[in-house]
Specification:
The protein is α/β, with parallel strands linked by helices and 277 residues long. The chain has 3 domains: 62 residues, no CATH class; 59 residues; 119 residues, Trna Endonuclease, Chain: A, domain 1 (3-Layer(aba) Sandwich). The protein contains 12 helices and 10 strands. A 5-stranded mixed beta sheet has the order 4-5-6-8-10, sandwiched between helices. Strands 2-1-3 form a 3-stranded mixed beta sheet. Strands 7-9 form a two-stranded parallel ribbon. Strand 1 and strand 2 form a beta hairpin.
Length: 277
């Protein structure tokens, strides 16, 4: 059985891969098997992965909004656009959860030219610059040109001392983060050049999807009980993570939700933020 990916590539249908993603949503094995059975009845040669995702999402939502929200993580990351400014804030919060100090959107004078850097993080006196490459389309990848370009900026910036966390800081490490994927050439170049990469599925076992699951760092854009416009209003209020609503339901009042809808949203948030590894 063949399926058509978002990119247009035709690949084999992998039920086991779908099963793993459904299990990660928090649904029970019984529910997962039932969803697989229902989807199995509708799968045909040439079906799109988008269609399969929508069907699985709909069935999960009938079971529990929080399951659908967890399954909705990648789409939620895409909705941190369109420019990616909120994605940068989300990445800063990921690092902050690992005890890094963070700074966003600073302009530094390099040896040759000035550079606007998306995020800076600091731990144990090591300061890293982070460049975020946000893609609004799911099939877009960051190719080898990205780490080549960022490496040149890093080399220029690390030559000087800067005012970041103190007045005499030096930048000694570099990260590139994307909500999608890196090409194999980009990964090879980054490894060779000493650049750290973080993407939806890289590095294995410590990527965006695993970090989000383990620490319950789901963006509010994952939530299924709110409209896209309402979630956008929360982002403007600087509420990036769903867990930030746990003790802050007043923000839902500020954006105009009724008491009944606030109750539904808070129920989803409470269930979504019960972490598991």
């Amino acid at each position: 059985m063949k399926v058509v990916k978002y990119s247009g590539d035709i690949v084999d249908f992998e039920p086991e891969k779908l099963k793993k993603s459904l299990i990660k949503s928090g649904a029970t094995i019984a529910v997962v098997n039932d969803i697989l059975r229902q989807i199995g009845k509708e799968v045909y040669d040439g079906i799109s992965t988008k269609h399969i995702y929508k069907k699985a999402f709909s069935l999960l939502k009938k079971e529990a909004n929080s399951h659908a929200a967890r399954y909705n993580l990648r789409t939620g990351l895409q909705q941190l656009g369109p420019e990616g400014f909120f994605f940068e804030k989300y990445i800063a919060k990921l690092f902050a959860a690992e005890d890094y100090q963070t700074k966003l959107n600073l302009i530094l004078q390099g040896k040759c030219v000035t550079h606007e850097i998306d995020v800076f993080v600091k731990k144990s006196n090591v300061i890293c610059m982070i460049e975020c490459k946000f893609h609004s389309k799911r099939d877009a990848s960051s190719n080898v040109k990205i780490p080549m370009y960022v490496l040149s900026r890093f080399n220029d910036v690390k030559e000087n001392k800067h005012q970041i966390f103190s007045n005499e800081d030096t930048v000694s490490d570099c990260w590139i983060v994307t909500n999608n994927r890196f090409t194999s050439d980009a990964i090879d170049f980054a490894k060779c050049s000493g650049i750290n990469l973080l993407s939806w599925d890289y590095p294995k076992g410590n990527n965006l999807k695993t970090k989000s699951d383990i620490e319950c760092l789901y963006p509010v854009t994952c939530l299924t009980t709110m409209t896209i416009a309402e979630k956008g209003k929360l982002l403007i209020l600087d509420i990036i993570l769903a867990k930030e609503l746990i003790n802050n339901s007043e923000s839902l009042e500020k954006i105009g939700l009724s008491s009944k809808r606030i109750k539904n949203v808070m129920k989803e948030v409470s269930e979504l933020c019960k972490c598991f590894g």
